């Protein structure tokens, strides 16, 4: 810690102990005394502005505890709220169980009209690095909300149909069906359905305004960054 200025934590949550152990990083930063900024591992939803179902809620609770520890110790920080990483949902057109982009039919979670935010993981990294020594992001949350990447599921499906010059059958998946899958499915699927539920059903990536006293928006601060748009991202699957 004494050899660096900025600390990025990219620990995962499988097992959840990895998130919990970030408390050790905070202790080391406090002891070193020279760290100018920490970015803890909570890339995804805004931890303090969402309500998630289990099994995701336990992860969220640990992220909030680490935030509280950072503030308590007075460690300079920038929290990063990056919304949906593009890698998982875009290649599935917003589906959870699909292995890739469907050829004939697509499942639409909810009414298909809820807007969500997709961000290329490389852009998440770029914005996080640019914010490292920016005084405008000190002790604030960096929200990554590229305006060209805010889509409903219907808009995403229509974009793909236009690119492929074909029409997909739309299969509606109700909120009740999703809740049943979260309760009954084995393995990791309930985790991803809980994330999908928060985004596609409850709109928790877009249902609040950024409070400028505690947060800033990345694509507004760093207009020089040519982020990957959803429209461009989908070209790789043609």
From TrEMBL:
SUPFAM superfamilies per UniProt: NAD(P)-binding Rossmann-fold domains
Top-level taxon in the UniProt lineage: Eukaryota
Occurrences of domain NmrA-like (ranges): 2-234
Pfam families linked to this entry: NmrA
InterPro entries on file: NAD(P)-bd_dom_sf, NmrA-like, NmrA-type/Isoflavone_red_sf
Signal peptide per UniProt: none
Protein name per Swiss-Prot or TrEMBL: NmrA-like domain-containing protein
Organism for this UniProt entry: Platanthera guangdongensis
């Amino acid at each position: 810690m004494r050899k660096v200025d900025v600390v990025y934590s990219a620990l995962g949550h499988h097992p959840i102990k990895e998130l919990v152990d970030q408390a050790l990083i905070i202790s080391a930063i406090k002891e070193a005394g020279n760290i100018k900024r920490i970015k803890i591992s909570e890339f995804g939803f805004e931890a303090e502005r969402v309500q998630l179902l289990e099994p995701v809620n336990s992860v969220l609770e640990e992220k909030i505890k680490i935030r509280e520890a950072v503030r308590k110790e007075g460690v300079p920080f920038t929290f990063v709220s990056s919304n949906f990483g593009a890698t998982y949902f875009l290649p599935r057109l917003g589906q959870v169980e699909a292995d890739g982009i469907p050829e004939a039919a697509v499942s639409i979670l909810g009414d298909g009209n809820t807007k969500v935010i997709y961000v290329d993981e490389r852009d998440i990294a770029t914005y996080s690095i640019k914010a490292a020594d920016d005084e405008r992001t000190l002790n604030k949350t960096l929200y990554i909300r590229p305006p060209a990447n805010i889509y409903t599921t219907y808009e995403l499906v229509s974009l793909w149909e236009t690119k492929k010059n074909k029409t997909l059958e739309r299969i509606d998946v109700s909120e009740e069906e999703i809740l049943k899958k979260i309760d009954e499915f084995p393995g990791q699927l309930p985790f991803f359905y809980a994330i999908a539920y928060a985004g596609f059903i409850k709109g928790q990536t877009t249902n609040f305004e950024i409070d400028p006293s505690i947060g800033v928006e990345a694509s507004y601060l760093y207009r020089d960054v040519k982020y990957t748009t959803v429209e461009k991202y989908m070209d790789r699957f043609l």
